[in-house]
Amino acid sequence: MLSMTKEQVVDVMLELYSVSKEAKSWLEFYLEPDVQKELEKYKKAIRNQFFSWNGYPKDPSFRECNKLVSSFMKLYPDPQATADLMLYYVEQGCELTRQFGDYDTPFYTAVENNFNKAMKFISEHGLDVELYPRIKKMIDSVNCCGYGFTDNLWEIYREHT
Question: Rounded to the nearest 10 degrees, how much is the dihedral formed by the CA atoms of 42, 62, 142, 36?
């Protein structure tokens, strides 16, 4: 590792803080960790991928949502907060299709893949019993959707419990 003086380290940190949005977010969270505040900020950003400010549907960027989840996880919040965000992401996909009708196969595949990631994380951290009512409510909410979506979500759930 490079040998740096305290002042040089401070200069590097200040530069990093000013040029990297992700570094700025991490440093602010590190210095003043408010998991709930960060969680709400990330939830809002995910919701904005699915719905416009006036509630109309958008064509969600699953790539952007995945980046948001990944960025949140880099803050090292507790597993419950991470599971909450991961489920919230899937819930937004479920809400979009429930409110505005069927979408195409790639949409459902993306939601299912993200639910699989969420369930794997939830299972690994022993949160499945705690989150079962929320998961059940989410899956039951999309009974009206096509393409075997509900069945696929239940199958993913059973694989991880």
Answer: -10
- Taking residues 100-122, report their average pLDDT: 94
The reported pTM is 0.85
Left (φ > 0), alpha (ψ -120 to 50) or beta: where does 126 sit?
left
End-to-end CA distance of the chain: 44
CA 60 distance to own-chain centroid: 13
Tens of pLDDT along 1-59? 578 888 888 888 888 888 888 788 778 777 777 889 999 999 999 999 999 988 889 99
- What is the C-alpha separation between 41 and 111, in angstroms, rounded? 21
What is the number of alpha carbons within 13 Å of residue 110 lying toward its C-beta?
Answer: 19
Long-range contacts (CB closer than 8 Å, 24 or more residues apart) made by 93-101: 93/50, 93/60, 94/138, 94/139, 94/141, 94/142, 95/50, 95/141, 96/50, 96/51, 96/57, 96/60, 97/142, 97/145, 97/149, 98/141, 98/142, 98/144, 98/145, 99/57, 100/57
Sequence-distant (6+) residues with CB within 8 A of 37 are: none
Check whether 67 has a pLDDT greater than 60. Answer: yes
